[in-house]
Fold this sequence. Notes:
Blueprint: H1 7-12, H2 32-35, H3 53-57, H4 65-68
Amino acid sequence: MKVDDTTENADRCICPNCPTHANDCMKEEKLYCAKGKSKCPIKRQGCLCGECPVASDYQLSDLYFCDIGEAK
């Protein structure tokens, strides 16, 4: 399901707490499920997408949106 790129969803986004999100390049990015994959290099170090309230609300089942791109 397509995720709405809204302030409300961005405020509820937990991307900044993700172990994969831990590089300085990504510090200003979040809500990958709506906006698409990161422009930064990704080193998968664990994923919190399954615990995210935004992902739950939109019934998303994929992980690593920072690497694979937005939810469809």
